[in-house]
Amino acid sequence: MTDTEPKPDDPAAAARSGAPVRESAVERRILDAALRQFAERGFDRTSVQGIVEAAEVTKGALYHYFDSKDDLLYEIYHSLIARQLADLGDVLSRGLPPREAVRAVLGGLIRSTAAHIDEAKVFSREMHRLDSARMRSIRADRRRYHVTFRGLVEQGQRDGVFSDATPAETVTIVALGMVNQMPSWYRADGPKPADRLADEVTGFVMAALDQRRV
């Protein structure tokens, strides 16, 4: 991973996440089984044998695609962030004005996190088990998203459509920080649907950024 920050108006740079997402049917079945096992039993109490039985594959098939349980844990996260980076790139490619772009990115991120909350929960709980190389890759992915979102806020502030009373970095930390905390409190079967939550949060952030607010 390079330490160079991507330009916020470069959709290709924003969408890159370092490695292709696992897409074959067998790989997805193994990952889905690992996710269920990690969620129900925890990383330490989950065995490779338990995963292959849940996935209805052989150990040989698992090790053909994945090196270890750590590899499975990393891929669970990588699938999540790769999807979010791709969604971010899609919004940027539409060339929306900053206001519409920030609303679309943040709303889409909340909905995506809610739709894949089990992956987010498992990763949040178990991420400390990854080795330093994978942690660097994860931080680079998250930094890429952070920098690109911040760039959208900065552009809106330069254009005069957003208030510059609060630095773009602080806005980004607050907005994305809330999403990062969703694994600790969001429930898919809770009283508030993801669409409503996305509308409320984006409305709050947009009101705070509104140049016309008193």
Characterise the protein shown here.
The protein has 214 residues and is mainly α. It is 71% helix and 0% strand. The chain is built from eleven helices and no strands. The chain has helices at residues 11-15, 25-41, 48-55, 59-65, 69-93, 98-115, 117-126, 132-159, 168-180, 182-185, 194-209. The chain is elongated and about 60 Å long. The chain starts with 10 loop residues before the first helix and ends in a 5-residue tail after the last helix. Residues 1-9 and 14-20 have low confidence and may be disordered.
Index terms:
11 helices, mainly alpha, disordered N terminus, 214 residues
What can be said about this structure in brief?
It is built from eleven helices and no strands. The protein has helices at residues 11-15, 25-41, 48-55, 59-65, 69-93, 98-115, 117-126, 132-159, 168-180, 182-185, 194-209. The longest helix has 28 residues, at 132-159.
